[in-house]
Amino acid sequence: MFCYQCEQTTRLPSGDGCASAKGLCGKDATTADLQDLLVHAVKGVAQQARRARALGVPDHEAGAFMLHALFTTLTNVNFNPTRFVTLLNEAAAVRDRVKARCEAAPNAATIAAPTGPAIEWTPAADLEGLLVQAAAVPVNAGLAEVGEDVVGLRALILYGMKGVAAYANHAAVLGYTRDTVFAGVEEAMDFLASDPTDVPTLLDRALSVGRLNLEVMELLDAANTGRFGTPCPTAVRVAPVAGKAILVSGHDLGDLEALLKQTAGKGINVYTHGEMLPAHSYPTLKAYPHLVGNYGGAWQDQQTDFANFPGPILMTSNCIIEPGPRYRQRIFTAGPVGWPGLRHLTDHQFGPLVAAALALPGFKADEPEQTITVGFGRDAVLGVAGAVIDAVKAGDIRHFFLIGGCDGAASGRNYYSDFATGAPDDTVVLTLGCAKYRFNRHEFGAIGGIPRLLDLGQCNDSYSAIRIAGALAEAFDCSVNDLPLSLVVSWFEQKAAAVLLTLLALGIRNIRLGPTLPAFITPNVLATLVDGFGIQPITNAQDDIAAALNRAA
Amino acid sequence: MSVHSIALLTRDGERLSFPCAEDQSLVEAAAAVDLFLPVVCREGGCGACRATAQEGEYHLGPHSSAALSAEDAERRTILLCRTYPRGPMSVGAPFDRSRILSQAVRPRGGAVTELTLVGERTVRLCLELEDEGEGRAAEFEAGQYMELEIPGEGVRRAYSLANTANWDGALEFLIRLQPQGRFSGYLERRAKIGDRVLTHGPLGGFTLQEHGLRPRWFVAGGTGLAPMLSMLRRMADYQDPQPARLYFGVNRESELFALDELGRLAEELPGFTLIPCVWRAGEGWQGFRGTPADAVRADLAALGVAPDLYTCGPPALIDAVERAAREQGVPDSHLFSERFLPSVA
């Protein structure tokens, strides 16, 4: 295997990347290699689908397949090699079906049929054969011929596209799809299928991925708010209450809603975990009285949190890590998620989960009440924009810090809690993603009634952050880069890569990125990003806060 | 006494290390740092803790040749409970990290709910776990086993579970009555519905592997059927896509049992084939005549596939099946087995 898609990838003087029998995320070599081959297969689907679109017979089933397939290859999503073998066979079938549609189109002769290895690939009959095929298409293929900058930029585009696919899949399962998004996915994966080598073109395409992701996040925002209402500030209980219990993790609000319906009136309390926390702020979801609270910390604490949770757990999307023996029989997967030996539930058929909840003991007693407040989406924040603007003009709010992104186990991530808690009292901290679990129980206080910590939601609610920044810039008649706003981004996986590309595509400068820089960003590419966008690695919280305030002053 | 560093590499690639003195077995040394390896008898008798010494010198304590043959020992196969290091060692384990527990298993009481003779000298024993405040859930991986404690005697015997994990606390075992067996004696003479039996587990690493769509062939000798039934039932529950077949070997037709359950599985699990193998079949027997090893050899040759092969039963059966598989080019990485050996004393 060779994989360097996440932040925790192996870093060695001889070269970065996980390249042994097992990656640091727990993904074994077989699964990693099958994921590489699936990416290759998706390129073939994209090539055919792009031609179909040009011929006027776009194929949205192929589009939906690509989103789901790419999502399964994100960090901490699917670890089950059997699932990948099935997906590989499906990919070939989808590609060939689209090909047949193209050939049946009356104008088929007007556009040449695509060619290349992803078009010609036929899945081998057995696992051994697939692994031989995978060996030809690692993410760093062609390194000796094209060099590390080209390979790294291809990886940046691919990983950005994985993030795009994940967000678009979240929207699609809620019933929201868009032609232009499918077209964008086809185009980007088709571009990668051409094994591009021109560095300026690759950089330009990476920013296109960022623009596509902005549209996707807007679509997902429409899906979430369209289905569940506009988030509003909501106090969420973070202490258990007595009774039977189910814990829901991941990002899929549709899964949560279906489960809330199926557990209504059954005496089962439902808790959110990790990135599901913002669910409490959506009117349709918070209307269920048995959605009682949030449990546990960020994803990397799950082995302890899940082992101590006295009920079953549903993992709806990333991030799953190896289930410990104490909860292995009572954790279920859904959607793109998988782990060998775990029960996978499809089509919202949560019966086994409900049965498990009724059989398991649940919490025996209420724990002392403790709450955190979530739900400061763009509507909530812009609803008090007048007060915010006045506070800035009066000097009561000196600066905004957006501290967002993923959490992780690395010790360097203390930077983000140090940063949030060390931000001066006349500054406001906006947050999103799961990095906030490092500081969201800290007492931040308020400035003139405006809470100093505003939780915008999941990582994909970066869209809200962008809209808020845009509205503030308009109000102050300046560009976003001229606002008293600093972005401090904590990345871990490929959704964050997509969001980062979006921020760059919007021209947002001086982002602090950490805890370490992506292994696939080479020194030359980094130099370009520093020159073009002022991207900076994090140093230490105190110095970075001071630097941000000085720059603004 | 020298203490050596032991590196244990699990099947799924995790690397664990712990110190081990020369008079400590690897199992004891691992337990000292709260790593509880999958073992059964702890005295070299069952073969449940077989592993491979990849590097380093060691002393292998007394053990049954059925659990570890001289030939296997020559190939540096070891029993973790009988291995005493003589220098730093690197050991390859045939089980995943998740099979190593970080705390000793808490015993749970269960009431006997069924005690039925289902074949010649084969008993189905069902227990229902008590709710001791944590719910009744019977949480285990298909293919694992429990140790059952004979009421009033404190003696434990290991038996594979035949059912799948459930929330009702149901445990099902298929137990061969041994002429001099302690647990057999209890079952034959004293056991009754409602008896309280203490259970220890689940234990063991003989569980289903995810290797893509590679066919899964199960080979059972006698009550070696139990873990196979568990795995096949789980495959049916999950609707696993791999084609599966079961070679169920007995000496005479009258020893076949659980055919109703296996028939139901054929309905619930698409792609499942049952192949009863009777060694000394009577004249009326229409099925395969011979041992499961004979049947597996013939089918591997005829079909030209290299399936994952799960074998459970007496060591002689396992050795014969695995020999047949190797002859037909099935790699060792496709072979999984659990040896059933009668306990001594």
Automatic annotation (TrEMBL), chain A:
Binds 1 [4Fe-4S] cluster. The modification Cysteine persulfide is found at residue 406. [4Fe-4S] cluster binds at residues 3, 6, 18, 25. Its cofactor is [4Fe-4S] cluster; hybrid [4Fe-2O-2S] cluster. Its EC number is 1.7.99.1. GO terms for cellular component: cytoplasm. This is Hydroxylamine reductase.
From TrEMBL, chain B:
It holds the Pfam family FAD_binding_6. Residues 4-97 form the 2Fe-2S ferredoxin-type domain. SUPFAM superfamilies: 2Fe-2S ferredoxin-like, Ferredoxin reductase-like, C-terminal NADP-linked domain, Riboflavin synthase domain-like. GO terms for molecular function: 2 iron, 2 sulfur cluster binding; oxidoreductase activity. PROSITE patterns: 2FE2S_FER_1 (PS00197), 2FE2S_FER_2 (PS51085), FAD_FR (PS51384). Residues 105-209 form the FAD-binding FR-type domain. CDD domains: fer2 (cd00207). This is Oxidoreductase.
